[in-house]
Amino acid sequence: MMNTQTLAYGDVAVGDKLPPLKIDITSGLITGAAIATRDFTPVHHEKWAAQAGGLPDVFMNILTSNGFMGRFVTDWAGPDSTIKGVSLKLGAPNLPGFVMTVTGEVKAKDDYSGIVEVAVEGENNVWGTHMSGTVKIELPKEA
Amino acid sequence: MTPEERKDLEEKIHAFVGREVSAPTRGLDDVNAPMIRHYCEVLGDENPVYTDAGFAEKSSKGGLIAPPTMLQVWSMEGYPMCQEPEMDVQRELHKVFDDSGFIGVLGTNTTSEYYRDLRPGDQVTTHCVIDSISEQKATARGIGYFIETLYTFTDQNDEEIGKLVFRVLKFIPNDSNEADASDDSGDDGMPETPSRIASPRGHDNAWWWEAVDNGAVLIQRCKSCKTLRHPPRPMCGECQSMEWDSIESSLDGEVFSFTQIHYPKFPGYPYPLVIGVISLSEGTRLIANIVGCEPEDVTIGMKVKGKVEQVDEKTMLPQFYPLPVDKK
Ligand SMILES: [Zn+2]
Fold first, then answer.
1. If we measure between CA atoms, which residue out of B46, B51, B54, B76 comes closest to residue B65?
2. Is the CB of residue B57 less than 8 Å away from at least one CB of chain A?
3. Which of B61, B77, B178 sits opposite A54 (nearest CB)?
4. Is residue A89 part of a domain?
5. Is the preceding peptide bond at B264 cis, omega within 30 degrees of 0?
6. Percent composition of chain A: helix, strand, coil (DSSP 3-state, to 5)
7. Would you say B228 and B238 are in contact if contact means Cβ atoms under 8 Å apart?
8. Ligand 1 centroid to residue B255 C-alpha, Å
9. Which of A3-12, B12-21, B191-200, B263-272 has the weakest average pLDDT?
10. Residue A56 is part of a domain; what is its CATH number?
């Protein structure tokens, strides 16, 4: 659930853990989000195309994974925060029927810019780490 | 690949570095509230500054903004991606790799920076260059090269609003048969079912798999203290000797632990699929399939007997049957 109160920079400490987010991966999510990100590459909506590449079914596109990195951190930080960057390393694909659990922890703070670095990891219950990386988010000095 | 072929390939690919992939292109749609709402709906993003104009107005944003992670969305070409794509510099580069056998492609990283929040009405223009190509690397997927493509995004005032580095691995698949399967369509146009994932063979364990290919399961033995060990590795954990030989296992054993794989079902594997940790009578343990009985009948401690069998066109594996063994 979205936090509608924005965290202030001073409220956050290195080592803080974010509330985990569970995402049920379905064909609808994979294909719907591929289309919502305007990614019509066949492997994200056409099962035979995914199978031709050696996977059993359609799989989540990168733009969606990147979107979940951002959503996960703004759910925690609140609406007045500002995402400044996402670095994303891709691992095992997300397929229909999997459940991805996203977790995160504050890794660094920069007092000058008010930017907080959050390490994020999305792990699916079948093949392990789907995504890992860092989201940089600017928080207001005062809430 | 001979050193000459490699040199030739590297000359060709490095000539692409710094080249513009296509002329700067303005997005088909400017930043707009309906596409933002659609994106948030599917991703379950309830941040009100993206979709609730009244809330956004009163917030520090002063009005609706797009999720920053949508930046690249404004540049996508859309449904034509389904069809045979037009040749551009990026696809030309991929073709150079393909022609040398580097047919695999895998997106490995994206790094995005967002310089400001975008609002409905903003125009996004994308500039794209081949930024770098790595040295040849040995990866888990196979030998390959990392290509980094740099996207720079500008707005209606020619101000930079963000950038994206997209890193892709072009590689020779380790299991080249798997890749061949994609070109090898059957009569109904469906791809052929892939066979099992090939055993990974390296410097320290290839000898073990080669023995399996010839019907024997070997157990590595330290030459100085005679301790048996499995899986294969260079050094004895007891006495640190690196001298070793091996004995052949009788394949008598019992189930130490097991699991059944339900989902996802991998093409090329028989189901139900039970994987066991087998305690061999020699004392080491081995991971192998348990076959010849219903999964419900497998129990911890069950006595089993192994046989090395051909399980598909190109794979020999030890498999374990409950006792008594069916002699064929
Ligand atoms: Zn020893």
1. B51
2. no
3. B178
4. yes
5. yes
6. 25, 35, 40
7. no
8. 27
9. B191-200
10. 3.10.129.10
Instruction: Report how many domains make up chain A.
Output: 1
Nearest to A39 among B60, B76, B267 (CB): B76
- Centre of ligand 1 to C-alpha B252, Å, is 24
In a domain, A125, yes or no: yes
Q: Look up residue B50 and give its two tokens.
A: 């993206």
Q: How many whole angstroms from B246 Cα to the centroid of ligand 1?
A: 13
Q: Which fold has domain B250-328?
A: OB fold (Dihydrolipoamide Acetyltransferase, E2P) (2.40.50)
Please check whether residue A84 touches B, CB under 8 A: yes
Whether CATH 3.30.70.120 fits B3-31+66-184: no
How confident is residue B262, by pLDDT bands cut at 50, 70 and 90?
Answer: confident
ipTM for the whole complex: 0.96
Residue B189 predicted with pLDDT over 90 = no
Q: Averaged over B259-267, what is the pLDDT?
A: 75
C-beta atoms of A40 and B80 within 8 A = yes
Using CB atoms, which residue from A23, A40, A95 is nearest to B78?
Answer: A40
Q: Which two tokens stand for residue A97?
A: 């029927």
pLDDT score for B186: 36
In this structure, the number of other CB atoms found within 10 A of the CB of residue B83 comes to 9
Query: How many CA within 13 A on the CB side of residue A22?
Result: 5
Q: Which of B105, B112, B190 to mutate to test the interface with A (most CBs of A within 10 A)?
A: B112
Half-sphere exposure of residue B145: CA atoms within 13 angstroms, side-chain side: 23
- For residue B8, CA distances in Å to A29, A106, B102, B280, B303 come to 44, 47, 14, 52, 58
Q: What is the rounded CA–CA span in Å between residue A71 and residue A78?
A: 10
B141: confidence class by pLDDT, cuts 50, 70, 90: confident
Q: Give a yes or no: residue A4 inside a domain.
A: no
Q: Which residue has the higher pLDDT, A20 or B105?
A: A20
Q: Has residue B113 got a pLDDT over 60? A: yes
Q: How much is the pTM? A: 0.69
Strands (DSSP E) contained in chain B are 20-26, 104-114, 125-133, 137-139, 142-154, 160-171, 218-222, 228-229, 244-248, 252-261, 273-280, 285-290, 303-312, 315-322
Q: Is A104 within the bounds of a domain?
A: yes
Q: Which of A38, A60, A71, A84 to mutate: most B Cβ within 10 Å?
A: A38
CB of A69 less than 8 A from some CB of B: yes
Rounded mean pLDDT of chain B? 89
For tokens 């019907």, name the residue.
B215
pLDDT at B265 over 80: no
Q: Looking at this protein, which amino acid is placed at residue B108?
A: T
Q: Is the pLDDT of residue B250 over 60?
A: yes
